[in-house]
Amino acid sequence: MMEKYCIGIDVGGTKLAYGLFDRACNLIDRFKAKTNPELEPDEMLDEMCTHIDTLLRNNSLKRSDLMGVGAAFPSHIDFDNGFIITTSSLPKWDNVPVKKLLSEKLGVPVEIDNDANVAAIAEHLFGAGKGKKDMLYITISTGIGGGIIINNFIYRGSYGAAGEFGHMIISDDGYLCGCGNKGCIMSLASGPKIIRYTREKLEEGCHSILSGMVENLDDLTCKHIQDAADMGDQLAIEVINRTGDLLGIMFANLYQIFNINHFVVGGGVSKFGKPLFERFNEKLRKLSKISYAYPVNIVPAVLGDDVGIIGAAALMLQQLRCL
């Protein structure tokens, strides 16, 4: 039987990443391009088809060698019908039947899902959740979201919005969230809000080496905070501890709801590393009264920047019963 291949696409607000995979979801080659959010959906889908043709041509392949394409979008997805319902980073894409349109253009089966779900699938099959029947994947970066694996399958909820952990309200105070509420964990412990909190502390006169690491506090990043903490800076350490405590409350709530004992954490904020994860676990155990006879693990994701393309390809391969 002639070998067939699958392509996984990770659609972001600033970049498009493509991966060519065999039927066992082994990554063969990659291709990257910039996202042009000004394009109409049909124009961008045509551009994506051109990128796919380039990736295939680079490997002496053509569309007839494809068995399917999976695509991850930073969006609320109607999985069953293949629609993007709404997306913040691609404002022209609301209510677009991407699955149907892209499949018609390429002449192969297509599956789409949101980026957190496909990342959960990837980490469950090939990463830090491999071998776990139940798993929660949480990504903490510009926003906070996640994917839910129950009995080895992704759980999407009644309307495709399961895993929107970032809008869990853990306080009646704090910054206003984009959803209009106050106290969402995303408005307290996402990357931009961590930086905002740190900047406000510095503006209040808190002594820290962070002040000398950037010329303008608007240029402050989580990497600066991490580096300062590694050098023993007390404000940076306090910021990471505060972040760990806030997220630990979220983890405790998720544990009480799902009783799932394996959390995989990805995203830029997870790069705070061991001190952050120790704080997660400490807060989780304190709030959930977990017996040490019942282990609960919060571990870092391991697939890095490839998680989106791997998960998108795996999504398609699962539908084709290859995985």
Keywords:
Nucleotidyltransferase, domain 5, single chain, alpha/beta, 5-stranded mixed β-sheet, 37% helix, 323 residues, 12 strands
Strand residue percentage? 15-25%
Measured as a percent range, the helix fraction is 25-40%
Number of domains: 2
Strand segment count:
12
Helix-strand makeup class: alpha/beta
Mean of residue pLDDT values? 94
CATH class of the largest domain: Alpha Beta
Shape assignment: globular
Count of separate DSSP helical elements: 9
Low-confidence stretches: none
Task: Give the spatial strand order of the biggest sheet.
Answer: 3-2-1-4-7
Classified in CATH, the superfamily of the largest domain is ATPase, nucleotide binding domain
Q: Provide the succession of SSEs.
A: EEEHEEEHEHEEEHHHHEHEH
The value of Rg in angstroms is 21 Å
| CATH fold descriptor of the largest domain | Nucleotidyltransferase, domain 5
N/C terminus separation: 18 Å
Largest sheet: 5 strands, mixed
CATH architecture of the largest domain: 2-Layer Sandwich
